[in-house]
């Protein structure tokens, strides 16, 4: 999907690691959320609350998911991150990404 329609976009950016990772939250009519962002080269460790699906539009990075080895991705590519986990990133070139948050249905 190249574009999203009928969404709300947060004015304020999510800024992490002194601006090396930035994103904006978009909210869909069904209240699901995604972030659209940029990652600059560097090494980072992040946490999840919900399961996340990362769609890399362009750029190159390596990801270390819980109990796994480093895996390299070059956009376009997609990978999933489990809920309630930590993961590491080695970003090799500017990464343009879309992150989808998958909430468990109760």
TrEMBL record:
UniProt GO cellular component terms: cytosol
The UniProt record lists the keyword Membrane: no
Alphabetically ordered keywords of this record: Glycosyltransferase, Transferase
Annotated EC: 2.4.2.1, 2.4.2.2
Superkingdom as given in the UniProt entry: Bacteria
SUPFAM superfamilies: RmlC-like cupins (SSF51182)
The reaction(s) this protein catalyses: adenosine + phosphate = alpha-D-ribose 1-phosphate + adenine; inosine + phosphate = alpha-D-ribose 1-phosphate + hypoxanthine; uridine + phosphate = alpha-D-ribose 1-phosphate + uracil; cytidine + phosphate = cytosine + alpha-D-ribose 1-phosphate
MF annotations from Gene Ontology: guanosine phosphorylase activity; purine-nucleoside phosphorylase activity; thymidine phosphorylase activity; uridine phosphorylase activity
Job description of the protein: Catalyzes the phosphorolysis of diverse nucleosides, yielding D-ribose 1-phosphate and the respective free bases. Can use uridine, adenosine, guanosine, cytidine, thymidine, inosine and xanthosine as substrates. Also catalyzes the reverse reactions.
Family recorded in the similarity comment: Belongs to the nucleoside phosphorylase PpnP family.
Name of protein: Pyrimidine/purine nucleoside phosphorylase
Highest classification ranks of the organism: Bacteria, Pseudomonadati, Campylobacterota, Epsilonproteobacteria, Campylobacterales
Gene: ppnP
